[in-house]
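Final report, closing paragraph on structural work. Over the funding period we assembled a curated collection of sequence-structure pairs, and we close with a single example.
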Amino acid sequence: MKKPDFLKVGDIVGIVATAKNFLPEELNAGIEIIKSWGFEVRVGKNCNNHYNQFAGTDEERFSDLQDFLDDQEVKAIICARGGYGTSRIIDNISFSVFETHPKWIAGFSDVTVLLSHLNSLGFQSIHSSMPVVFGKNLNRPSINSLRDTLLGKLGPFHCPYHELNRMGYAEGEIVGGNLSILVSLIGTKSDISTQDKILFIEDVGENLYRIDRMMVQLKRAGKLDKLKGLIVGHFNDMSDNIVPFGKSAFEIIEDAVKEYEYPVGFNFPAGHEADNRAFILGAKYNLIVESKETVLTYNVNYSS
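Its predicted structure, as stored:
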């Protein structure tokens, strides 16, 4: 996987909206925080547009992303928020300039479409919180982890023990993101390979039977059997039917991978909660799941 250059103070960071719309004031806190890191911020010219539920028309959202991908002064692109809409524009984007002059692209949730597409092209990206979220959930460890990742300061993650963990050790590139999006990408140009990888998944606002259906789909598509390890992030705001499904989201995931032997770490601090730590998709990490905690460490000796 090709790694873009880490940023330095004074670099330009672009903000684009590839999915759902928001109020302009919702972005202000995020802009000021990014500026406080020592970066110059440029906001896409269409970023505050509204077209039904989207942040502008498909053409407007595409245009902002394409402009910043092609602008060599912009050293990183952070997506403003998720929602839905990135898949509507991904096939129109040209990565020809980006492939020669790669830059960090960061986000999560619906932005999993873009991050997975980059992975399929052979480029690393950042799974992280986003500027609209900064003002709503001012979780400093989460926000600062994005700053540190952009600057190349990549410390280890320590996650408390969870009773469903399966202990073990693994080394591999991390791939993944939002479970619903990953399933929707199967069979497309943005689909990811999970063979010999550490898979990360998270989700929000789903019915439990749909979590089961998506895990079955991953399994049938051959996405679970050749993993090096599995990291399970936040699965919050789950719903159930009148007749209960009978298992929690974590229990559904545990059941889906029970026949495999790789380590599994639950409740990793990433996903749709305030504590959403940044890490690099496509980079190699060391995963240790042990009796007291789960530790995820960036492999500094790995060269892409």
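The longest helix spans residues 24-36. The chain has two domains: 12-151, 157-298. We thank the funder for supporting this effort.
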